[in-house]
């Protein structure tokens, strides 16, 4: 199963990426984690990107795309499944990631879009700031990351919709519920992806699923 995730900060990419990776026994490639690791180890790359990360700016495309190329090439040698988390973040990265996938014969089967509103995202990120102290979980950097998501990243969602590989889930609910829904959808899809050509697929919107089963509230405390 080859999955990439498109989601705003705080929607649960890291959490759900790990759930998917464990379930399917595939590597979880998280560009944010890779970049933070470079910063922590004070590598030349880490020193070059630290200011971007702290301010909530995107790091230059070439840096991230080199990482993706390297990670996917390594994955190609080990079976080819993956969960890409944090990339693409703009249209140029989306096209380049597709190109890398084409060259390696391993384009994504599913683009997973985690949908949540800004108020909830801000609440989660500020709560995480108190626990983890990530340098970009300040109020100012959070606002900026959300702005960049709406401006640059969200427009990619429509592109995956047109390609028929988009799966949208409601990420406003507790992580375990979201995770179960994602795994159920991916399990169903995994039996089709190898046989059904991309041109014949349609986007899947699961955001109404909870409501369809009488789940009237998205507030877990009620
Ligand atoms: P979040 O989605 O909460 O912002 P991530 O760990 O995915 O968390 O990303 C953290 C930071 O890493 C981003 O704000 C950005 O500075 C950098 N980053 C990660 N992925 C990319 C990417 N594909 N392109 C540019 N910058 C990236």
From TrEMBL:
Pathway: Purine metabolism; AMP biosynthesis via salvage pathway; AMP from ADP: step 1/1. GO terms for molecular function: AMP kinase activity; ATP binding. Signal peptide: none annotated. Gene3D superfamilies: P-loop containing nucleotide triphosphate hydrolases (3.40.50.300). Keywords: ATP-binding, Cytoplasm, Kinase, Nucleotide biosynthesis, Nucleotide-binding, Transferase. The keyword Nucleotide-binding applies. It is found in: Cytoplasm. Its EC number is 2.7.4.3. Its main location: cytoplasm. Monomer. Consists of three domains, a large central CORE domain and two small peripheral domains, NMPbind and LID, which undergo movements during catalysis. The LID domain closes over the site of phosphoryl transfer upon ATP binding. Assembling and dissambling the active center during each catalytic cycle provides an effective means to prevent ATP hydrolysis. This is Adenylate kinase. It comes from Asanoa ferruginea.
